[in-house]
């Protein structure tokens, strides 16, 4: 490929895509928001910090041959900026987003549209496992239930009045998740529909323990942006543009 590929990251998929592309000799610049204090860095060049809105991203696209937005399914602002900036510059854009989770027999899932709705849904619980990340915890600040708050870095106030903070970075195993829920008498789990295997063990543990799960639906994707569901699909999209490899299946549209 002539020119570099900018990968908007902050996910395991973004890191794996950078690994895959660097191994193919592609010039990759990965971008992280800088939210996590000690991020696991991908190979290739890495920049950290916001671009300064859509205008800043437009400027950063100078010399960029293609943009892959591999941010988290809930990083809706960055995804909107990627769509708007590439529309302005004409830079090819691919969204890499893992599929959401699907309920299995035995799951007791309740879908909501926002963290605020999730807080309302668990208002009557005794002990809540909150796995929604450290941003947006203010939505749960008014809960009187005991809340086990799990995040990679220490969450900032406001927190629920009776909070136990558990600092941990996935992937998590089913046995550990079951042990965590049992130790804290968790009677409901709250999660975003992040999808993927890294954090799915809590869903299995909840099913096994008969504990309900409140899931926050994903924000919608920008219209007209092609979507790859896997790292391989995204790598093929990039490599097809470089003309160095076999043509892949066309990524599906949202
Ligand atoms: P967001 O609300 O969509 O974005 C807020 C701002 O953060 C953006 O406008 C942008 O600042 C900056 N930003 C976000 N992702 C960036 C990236 N990859 N590189 C450079 N700047 C970035 O994002 P968020 O939900 O706060 O997530 C931040 C990061 O954490 C993302 O990279 C995402 O992949 C990762 N993450 C998010 C979640 C989640 O639940 N939201 C979970 C796991 C990981 P400017 O406007 O200044 O460019």
UniProtKB/TrEMBL annotation:
Pathway recorded for this protein: Cofactor biosynthesis; adenosylcobalamin biosynthesis
Keyword Phosphoprotein: no
Top-level taxon of the source organism: Bacteria
Pfam family, one: CbiJ
A biological process term (GO) from this entry: cobalamin biosynthetic process
PANTHER family per the UniProt record, alphabetical: COBALT-PRECORRIN-6A REDUCTASE
Protein name per Swiss-Prot or TrEMBL: Precorrin-6A/cobalt-precorrin-6A reductase
Lineage summary: Bacteria, Bacillati, Actinomycetota, Actinomycetes, Geodermatophilales
């Amino acid at each position: 490929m002539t020119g570099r590929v900018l990968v908007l990251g902050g996910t395991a998929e973004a890191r794996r895509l950078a690994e895959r592309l660097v191994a193919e000799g592609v010039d990759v610049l990965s971008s992280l928001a800088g939210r996590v204090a000690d991020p696991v860095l991908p190979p290739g060049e890495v920049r950290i910090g916001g671009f300064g809105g859509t205008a800043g991203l437009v400027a950063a696209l100078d010399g960029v041959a293609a943009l892959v937005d591999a941010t988290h399914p809930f990083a809706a602002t960055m995804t909107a900026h990627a769509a708007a900036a590439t529309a302005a510059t004409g830079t090819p854009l691919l969204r890499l987003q893992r599929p959401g989770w699907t309920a299995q027999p035995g799951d007791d899932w309740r879908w909501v549209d926002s963290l605020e709705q999730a807080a309302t849904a668990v208002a009557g619980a005794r002990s809540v496992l909150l796995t929604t990340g450290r941003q947006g915890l203010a939505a749960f600040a008014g809960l009187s239930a005991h809340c086990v708050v799990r995040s990679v870095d220490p969450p900032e106030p406001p927190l629920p009045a009776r909070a136990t903070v558990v600092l941990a970075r996935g992937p998590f195993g089913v046995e550990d998740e079951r042990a965590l829920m049992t130790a804290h008498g968790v009677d409901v789990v709250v999660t975003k529909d992040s999808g993927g295997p890294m954090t799915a063990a809590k869903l299995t543990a909840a099913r096994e323990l008969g504990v309900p799960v409140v899931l926050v639906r994903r924000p919608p994707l920008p219209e007209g942006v092609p979507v790859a569901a896997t790292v391989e699909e995204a790598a093929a999209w990039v490599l097809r543009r470089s003309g160095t490899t076999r043509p892949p299946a066309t990524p599906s549209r949202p």
